[in-house]
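Database export, one record per block. Field names are fixed; values are copied verbatim from the stored entry.
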Amino acid sequence: MGTTQLESVQEPKYWHLKTVLSEALDSDFSVGEILPNERELAARFGVARATLRQALEQLELEGRLQRRRGVGTTVAPPRVGVAVSTAQRDWTGDGAAEAWRAVDATAAPAPSSVASVLEVDAADPVHVVRRIRTSHGQTVAAEFLYVPSSSVPELSAIDAPSGPARARAVLRELHRLGLDGQDRSVELGSARADDAKELDRLPGAPVLVVTTRYLVAGGTAALSVATYRADTCRLTFGDAGKVEISHHGPERQAS
């Protein structure tokens, strides 16, 4: 029997180089060490810089490398296991399991795709809460939380019009509302300029985008779009029995 078309396809050069580089990271480099520049690495492994760049990008995507502003490319530590709980969220931030910090809140029209999910007019302002999440002293996620006015009808007009205090007021009212459930999706994306700055990443760096729709009385009470660092985070789901699988060292579990 002849070989299939897929079986006859040769492994791309950058993929083979990625394997070689991965082995070199384990044997020749330590966590946090800065890699030589692309010219030196290309000469060391006898490849074109374009091939090297593809291999480095793949290793960054897999969490083996980090590109740091003003530093260069460094060997990444083991990924942190970040729990994305399916339980009722403690919006007030009093729960020990939550490490989100309210940064700002404004009233503005939501993006059209968000407005459609919230079932509000694209021109109607909603509460836009900005939060960041930290773990082990490092910012691992940035979030936009969109809350229609109908979800927090008791929000006081005398509260601050913007800023962290306003954000906490919105979250406090959302917590009082209570939730019937939530659904969530995760996809791979690229860091936008605003997220990249907060996450200390370069624009275009790989990120994990977690979109969560919070449900109440058959409708959507709020929509969260949270951007997690793909190079340092391994997301875990469920309320108990989390399982972590690592290909390069033990995992650290985030609270």
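Remark 1: The mean pLDDT is 80.
Remark 2: The chain has seven helices and eleven strands.
End of record.
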